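Input record, target 12 of the design panel.
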């Protein structure tokens, strides 16, 4: 697809506007607490699913393990594409996938969490923990340790699959929204899993989705369209 003004409006400007409006809406309406309270009460006044085999072992730990295995495989296949002629046409796609998940996880987990102060729901006094609630844009008083729960690291694995939109955009443009749907569904699956466990609020996943979309877009431009930038 040609990279022009229309492309940037559709893939950068409009998504940024939607994200900004949602982030503001979440902040002023306290939807985090409303949904968190509902889930907490639904689970009997405690995070009863926190150590659930299905949510904790399979959807949390299992998903992390799966992607830790998949990424090295993509890297190996990408390396093999320099020697196996049949793989050569897919070299950029393989490289793209090999870097997207590590980049998304790194920016949400290793960088985002270190730069913010937000706690997990299960750490809050409101839900039986020891810390007061602070929203994303609140100023931390500095009298207790910073939280390390924002943005959502686990859902970044799922939202990294938003990159499939750009893969289809390059290889089969008419199917690009299938890729978008896969990324949204995977991100929501992992995001809701952590919300049910008391690990994250919904706004954490919103920010993660925004970060993963931006990383997917920038990586697409660099890997597939570098000569056009």
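The sequence produced for target 12 reads:
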């Amino acid at each position: 697809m040609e990279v022009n003004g229309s492309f940037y409006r559709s893939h950068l400007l409009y998504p940024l506007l939607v994200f900004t409006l949602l982030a503001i809406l979440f902040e002023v309406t306290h939807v985090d607490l409303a949904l968190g309270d509902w889930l907490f009460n639904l689970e009997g006044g405690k995070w009863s699913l926190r150590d659930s085999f299905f949510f904790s072992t399979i959807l949390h730990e299992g998903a992390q393990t799966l992607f830790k295995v998949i990424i090295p495989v993509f890297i190996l296949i990408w390396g093999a594409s320099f020697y196996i002629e049949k793989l050569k046409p897919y070299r950029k796609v393989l490289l793209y996938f090999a870097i997207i998940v590590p980049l998304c996880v790194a920016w949400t987990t290793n960088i985002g969490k270190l730069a913010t102060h937000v706690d997990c729901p299960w750490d809050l006094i409101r839900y039986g923990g020891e810390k007061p609630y602070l929203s994303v844009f609140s100023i931390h008083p500095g009298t207790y340790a910073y939280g390390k729960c924002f943005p959502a690291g686990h859902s970044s694995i799922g939202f990294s699959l938003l990159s499939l939109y750009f893969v289809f955009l390059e290889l089969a443009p008419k199917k690009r929204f299938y890729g978008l749907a896969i990324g949204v569904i995977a991100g929501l699956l992992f995001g809701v899993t952590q919300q049910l466990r008391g690990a994250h609020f919904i706004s954490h996943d919103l920010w993660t989705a925004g970060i993963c979309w931006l990383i997917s877009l920038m990586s697409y431009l660099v890997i597939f369209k570098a000569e056009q930038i």
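The CA atoms of residues 222 and 229 lie 8 Å apart.
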